[in-house]
Write a structure and sequence with these properties.
The protein has 17 helices and no strands. The chain starts with 9 loop residues before the first helix and ends in a 13-residue tail after the last helix. The chain has helices at 10-22, 25-37, 41-65, 72-80, 82-93, 96-115, 119-137, 141-165, 183-193, 200-203, 213-241, 254-263, 268-301, 317-336, 341-366, 369-389, 394-406. It has a single domain (10-168, 185-406), classed as Amino acid/polyamine transporter I, CATH 1.20.1740. α8 packs parallel to α11 and α8 (141-165) packs antiparallel against α13 (268-301). The model is unreliable at 412-419 (pLDDT under 50). The chain is mainly α and 419 residues long. It is a multi-pass membrane protein. Pfam families: AA_permease_2 (PF13520). InterPro entries: AA/rel_permease1 (IPR002293), APC_superfamily (IPR050367). The chain crosses the membrane at residues 43-66, 87-107, 119-137, 149-166, 186-208, 220-246, 266-286, 319-338, 344-364, 376-407. Keywords: Cell membrane, Membrane, Transmembrane, Transmembrane helix.
């Protein structure tokens, strides 16, 4: 099942995933990591990539052998049946009321920093962001990918400019001795930094739109992850070199403050626009992924329904419109009730780790060989993360239990992939 246009190539896939992983984190997390672990954060990024690697390998294998717009829900369906798949799909969609309003708040914050917008202006920026995603969604996934490749290039160019102007070289970076590192700050930093690699599950929804998913999807996923990790490490090195962290400085203004220090006050708006575009890229891939999930779930049950129809460019425009309307309503509600940004992020993070766990368990049943071993390791890592998060996963657990009880158990023939 797929009426979606298959046009994504390797470079487009790398651009989509790298911008999804960078998103809002590239401007905030390096400073947070440096604040927690100081120069030890230079070691924390390679350690984190090693820890995430098994999860990425499992996702790459699942997307390679079972490409489908349903993404995580499709993997779970093959492993545990249609009811668990519907629960997983709705669990992923339950991120919309908390995760997307948080991302919109962060994105609009860059406009406030650059142009001093007031409350009403920030709401207009959020509305304009959703409208831009809708306009981009009128075209196929390839158009989104091309835009995000450009955004990825701008982020990398900004980091390269900081290193060049700041005269930072690999030889000037002082790595702390491994024997001097303390375990507690490193673990605390890793717990924060893990959220930079939330986005693999969203990327899985686009596997069916690659021209050659078996070859290019796993390559794009792994290369995109390494590109994002390299950018994060480079930003951390710059933050440490300029001591742009800690104290009363907000983490999100760390990199813009370095840009101003190196290039002058007039360069602030450039850094803020790049920051906004990074947020936009992350929002775009998530809303596009949500739309593909809604489309695939509806298509399986009611292929003639309005939400299951594709546009002329063979994109799920109707499903995207529905997702964006829900996002708009959630953002207005969050603004009306003055919900704090950190509260929204906490609830969203628990959902993501829970979905990662379900995908890893699916990989344990569906995959073979080394990919299956990676799924078992990924499962253990996800359980460890849930234990570290603790009570903050309550939203995910409650949503999962409610969906399991409420959603009807329809008799449905599972789609079995060809050998």
């Amino acid at each position: 099942m797929s009426g979606l246009k298959q046009e994504l190539g390797l470079v487009q896939g790398v651009g989509l995933l790298s911008t999804s992983l960078l998103g809002t984190g590239v401007f905030a997390v390096p400073a947070l990591a440096a604040q927690i672990a100081d120069s030890g954060s230079l070691w924390a990024w390679p350690v984190l990539i090693i820890l995430v690697f098994p999860i990425a390998i499992a996702f790459a294998a699942l997307g390679r052998y079972f490409p489908n717009a349903g993404g995580a829900a499709h993997f779970v369906s093959l492993a545990f049946g249609p009811h668990m798949a519907r629960v997983t799909g709705w669990l992923f969609l339950s991120v919309i009321p908390v995760g997307l309003p948080a991302a919109l708040q962060i994105a609009s914050g860059f406009w406030q920093a650059a142009f001093g917008l007031e409350h009403s202006g920030l709401l207009l920026v959020q509305l304009g962001t959703l409208l831009a995603i809708l306009l981009l969604g009128m075209r196929s996934a390839g158009s989104s990918a091309n835009v995000q490749v450009i955004i990825a290039g701008l982020i990398v160019a900004m980091v390269v400019a900081i290193w060049w102007k700041g005269e930072i070289t690999p030889g000037s970076i002082q790595w702390p001795a491994l024997s001097s590192l303390s375990a507690s700050p490193m673990f605390s930093a890793l717990a924060v930094m893990f959220w930079c690699f939330v986005g693999l599950e969203a990327f899985a929804h686009l596997a069916a739109e690659f021209r050659n998913p078996e070859r290019d999807f796993p390559r794009a996923l792994l290369i995109g992850m390494l590109v994002a990790g390299g950018v994060y490490w480079s930003c951390t090195a710059a933050v440490l070199a300029f001591h742009s962290y800690g104290g009363e400085m907000a983490a999100s203004v760390s990199l813009p403050s370095i840009v101003v220090q190196l290039f002058g006050q007039h360069a602030l708006w450039v850094a803020c626009i790049i920051g906004y575009l990074a947020c936009f890229a992350s929002l775009n891939i998530y809303t596009q992924s949500f739309a593909r999930l809604v489309w695939s779930q509806t298509y399986e049950q009611k292929p003639k329904a309005w939400v299951a129809q594709l546009s002329r460019s063979r994109s799920p425009l109707n499903a995207l419109s529905l997702v964006l309307l829900c996002c708009l309503a959630s953002s207005l509600a969050a603004d009306y009730f003055s919900l704090a940004l950190d509260e929204l992020i906490v609830y969203a993070n628990g959902i993501f780790v829970f979905i990662y766990l379900l995908c890893m368990l699916s990989g344990c049943r569906l995959l073979k060989g080394s990919a299956r071993v990676m799924s078992f390791i990924g499962t253990a890592l996800c359980v460890l993360l849930l234990m570290m998060i603790g009570w903050k996963t309550l939203y995910a657990v409650v949503m999962f239990a409610l969906l399991w009880l409420i959603l009807p158990r329809r008799k449905h023939a599972s789609e079995v992939p060809a050998e």
